[in-house]
Amino acid sequence: DQQVKQNSPSLSVQEGRISILNCDYTNSMFDYFLWYKKYPAEGPTFLISISSIKDKNEDGRFTVFLNKSAKHLSLHIVPSQPGDSAVYFCAAQTGNAGNNRKLIWGLGTSLAVNP
Amino acid sequence: KAGVTQTPRYLIKTRGQQVTLSCSPISGHRSVSWYQQTPGQGLQFLFEYFSETQRNKGNFPGRFSGRQFSNSRSEMNVSTLELGDSALYLCASSLGRATANYGYTFGSGTRLTVV
Question: Are the C-beta atoms of B10 and B59 separated by less than 8 Å?
Answer without folding.
Answer: no
